[in-house]
Write a structure and sequence with these properties.
Helices cover 48% and strands 13% of the residues. By secondary structure, the protein is an alpha+beta fold. The protein has a two-stranded antiparallel sheet. It has a two-stranded antiparallel sheet with strand order 2-3. Pfam families: HTH_17.
Amino acid sequence: MPATRFSPSDLSAQDAEKLAAVVDDASVVTIGTVSVEVSSHGRAVMKEVLELLAAGQRVDVVPVAEFLSTQEAANLLHVSRPTLVKLLEEGALEYDQPGVHRRVARTEIDRFIAERHQRRSDGLKALAATGDGSVDQIVSTR
């Protein structure tokens, strides 16, 4: 999918900085004769893009497909494709298989990523609870 690119040459750092400062407080954005009410999340995204441009960085806006191939989903999760297939077959992620190929909804990937942090946190708490408070001892093997 093609990306839309914004670079510091499209908008000066000073102008980007000015816009980033005011976009946070604006609930309505007007361009020409068109005014649109923007949610707080939308304003936060615009502010982040403007701050990156003000810092001299290029920004790419890439459309996200609603359904992903197993390789695309694996790339987003930073796992191999066979590992993703194993997660699918274990039921950790829901998927569709309209023909031969599996398709994973982007919303399912987003849900899995959000829940992964909680699973890790719970696992670490459970591990910490297994200790009896005593200091580990080092045993010499030589």
